[in-house]
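Q: Convert this sequence to structure tokens.
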Amino acid sequence: MADEDGDGPALPPSDHKHGVPEDGLECMATMEDITAEDGNYCEYQTEPSGSWHACKYAADTVRRLLRTQFDEYAAGVRKADCHAELRRRLGPGPPIWIADKHAMPLPEGDTHVCRVWYADTGHEYSAKLKGALEGAERQALWDELAAFLGPPEEAKEGEGEAKEGEEGGKKDGE
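A:
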């Protein structure tokens, strides 16, 4: 059953003993203090290691990202006005899990955040983004969004130019 914050159903506990915020911890988004008294501390679990880490965002910021990050990604692709930005956004494909390389960095070898724990509820929740797609649905969206890139660069290069390796074209090392 979802709680009043819209976190979704609590997951079975991981048996990890969660901590408390270190002194001076501040939300990287809102600059508010993250304290045990305010109950705005949260942790995130990364996979495949299963390790837990203190988040550098307050709980409300994490909740907002879980609700909005997927839709903001799709909107960002649709309104991107720079080819490089579009390629960068499309590279890893539509997101499934919450991600922020600054406030929720992944340890070497880990691929994504899978759970979040909020001190105010004392429960763990899935880190899957609201609206995120998986499998064939995700691939279909990725293909649809990739259409914004237009034809591949090779096809757009000069019509009469020789291709790499052909006479008059670029050679290895040029």
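Helices lie at 59-79, 83-90, 135-146, 153-156.
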